[in-house]
Design goal:
CATH architecture of the largest domain: Beta Barrel
Largest sheet: 4 strands, antiparallel
Radius of gyration: 19 Å
Mean pLDDT: 78
Number of strands: 11
Shape: elongated
Order of helices and strands: HEEEHEEEEEEEE
Structural class: mainly beta
Distance between the termini: 49 Å
CATH superfamily of the largest domain: RNA polymerase II/Efflux pump adaptor protein, barrel-sandwich hybrid domain
Number of helices: 2
Number of domains: 2
Length: about 160
């Protein structure tokens, strides 16, 4: 793992909201901990003495105004498919593949609706509800948080 890979991992963790991550391989032991808003990391080869060096602070996110909340009456009758984990959301199995679901598609419990990649593992996310997809709430290839709403489903 080179310095660029470590920095990319720190940036991903900074965006994901995790407070602590530890990774250990035969070549490297990496601990990343967030104290307040500034992540601190230590990385050292396994066979060498421990030397902690703080990584450069991840860039602070620019504060943007939150979008106006949707009227509750409009979404009150919809079910929500939520993310069961932190990772990167993908609507299809590959860049050239069709999306698992589109707006207007019917879903049943057990139907794959998306993939969430976490630590190089691609996890198929299945619907737990039956209905028709009315809105996709997340852009393709963007980070998602645990329990973040992904799709709105109109019950049938």
């Amino acid at each position: 793992m080179d310095t660029k890979d470590i920095q990319n991992l720190i940036d991903f963790i900074a965006q994901s909201g995790l407070d602590e991550v530890s990774i250990e391989t035969n070549e490297l032991k990496l601990n990343v901990k967030r104290y307040g808003q500034t992540p601190v990391s230590s990385a050292q080869p396994v066979a060498q003495p421990v030397a902690q060096q703080p990584a450069p602070a991840a860039p602070q996110a620019v504060s943007t105004p939150a979008p106006a909340p949707a009227p509750k009456a409009e979404t009150a009758n919809y079910l929500t498919i939520k993310s069961p984990m932190i990772g990167t959301f993908y609507r299809s199995a590959g860049p050239d593949a069709e999306s698992f679901v589109e707006i207007g598609d019917e879903v049943k419990p057990g139907k794959t609706v998306c993939i969430i990649e976490a630590m190089k593992l691609f996890n198929e996310i299945e619907s737990e509800v039956a209905g028709r997809i009315v809105k996709v709430l997340v852009e393709n290839a963007t980070p998602v948080e645990y329990d973040q709403p992904l799709f709105l489903v109109e019950p049938i």
